[in-house]
Amino acid sequence: MKLNTLTYAALPLSVAFALAACGGGDKAAEAPAAENAEAAQSKPVEGKVLMSAEQISSAGIQLGRPTIGGSGTVEIPATIDGDPQGTQVVSAAIGGRVVSLTRNLGQSVGQGQAIAVIESREAASLNAEIEAARARLSLANSNLGREQRLFAQKVSPEQDLIAARTAATEARIALRLAQQQVSAAGAGGGALNRIAITSPIAGQIIARSVVLGQTVAADAELFRVANLSSVSLSLNLQPQDAGRVRPGNTVTIKAAGREATARVTFVSPALDANTRLVPVIATIDNRAGQWRVGEPVTASIALSDSGGGNAIKVPTTAVQTDEGKTVIFVRTKTGFQAVPVTLGDSAGDMVIVKSGLKGSEVIATVNSFTLKAELGKSEAVED
């Protein structure tokens, strides 16, 4: 009987131990699942950078929104030049000594106005030829008139009249040729041995390379005259930008509190051999005289075909590369999110975003490389 009592008493204890063992097994199975859930909740989101407003400010990160639409522009330094079609070199057609200069640098001159006088033996010879040709023509005309009277009186044969008429024609041609030779050399200089050098266009003297009394050779440059009512703007563009510049595109010019608009008139089909850039010329209306030849300016040139009216553009400083992907950092409530994007053509310091952005986001536009560095740190810690 005692043995049975002990057996029955031990039975509840064994059941209790068995139940305890079963309960412990359930808790052991649930523990790893809880740990995994907690780890999943603490794992950082890929491409996310946690940063407060104070940290953003101290890092010098500037925010902005993408630009939607517009043709895109390129801002580059440029130089004001004289209009190639409105600039003329005044040279000496014959050699000699400069005895008079009537215009100085910056002074206005009219078309055909004398600006210098050259004294030369060649000038004397040309002027003398005119006088001789004029005298021969006068004599030939006189002989022609006499032969016409004699022929009318039937005293002189028709053959003599024809010869006199031919001689008068030849003398007239010789005089015209002599006058053209003097005209090519210059105008009358007031004496047989002098030739006046005249301006071929109306404008201003922008260069003078001679002084009074100087002996100059034939074809030597004496002056440079420019019609500055229209001036040119010389630009040099990168080939990728020049490909979207067409004649007629607008150029905005700024310098020292002044601003004007020009139009592109020429885009070179070839690169400059030294700079490897594309020369571009624009024309500026300068009737007010506010732009000077040689003046440095800042030019903002509009680009054609820059993605259409709904194109999304961001500054190139907003674009970063992370693990081979092109990303832009978009502002979130807790910091930034690196958003992968696909880029299109560039437009100066802007680039077109073909996909990845809607255009309404706030993005990091300056010092976004700081966010790239922070993202790299987060990925290193995670690994």
Q: Explain this structure to me?
A:
The protein has 383 residues and is α+β, with helices and mostly antiparallel strands. The protein folds into four domains: 48-70 and 308-382, Beta Barrel (conserved putative lor/sdh protein from methanococcus maripaludis s2 fold), CATH 2.40.420.20; 74-83 and 228-302, Efflux pump adaptor protein, beta barrel domain (Elongation Factor Tu (Ef-tu), domain 3); 88-120 and 193-225, RNA polymerase II/Efflux pump adaptor protein, barrel-sandwich hybrid domain (OB fold (Dihydrolipoamide Acetyltransferase, E2P), Beta Barrel); 121-191, Helix Hairpins. It has helices spanning 2-42, 53-58, 121-152, 158-185, 239-242, 368-382, and strands spanning 48-50, 62-64, 67-68, 73-82, 87-91, 96-101, 108-109, 114-119, 187-188, 194-198, 203-208, 215-216, 221-226, 230-237, 250-255, 258-267, 278-285, 296-302, 312-315, 319-322, 325-331, 335-340, 342-347, 350-355, 363-366. It has a six-stranded antiparallel β-barrel with strand order 4-14-17-16-15-18. Strands 9-10-8-6-12 form a five-stranded antiparallel sheet, with helices on one face. The chain is elongated.
Shape: elongated
Q: What are the low-pLDDT stretches, counting only 5+ consecutive residues below 50? A: 1-44
The description of the largest β-sheet is: 6 strands, antiparallel, barrel
Side by side, the strands of the main sheet go 4-14-17-16-15-18
Count of beta strands:
25
Rg, alpha carbons: 45 Å
Distance between the termini: 69 Å
Organism: Novosphingobium guangzhouense
GO molecular function: transition metal ion binding; transmembrane transporter activity
Family: Belongs to the membrane fusion protein (MFP) (TC 8.A.1) family.
Keywords: Coiled coil, Signal, Transport
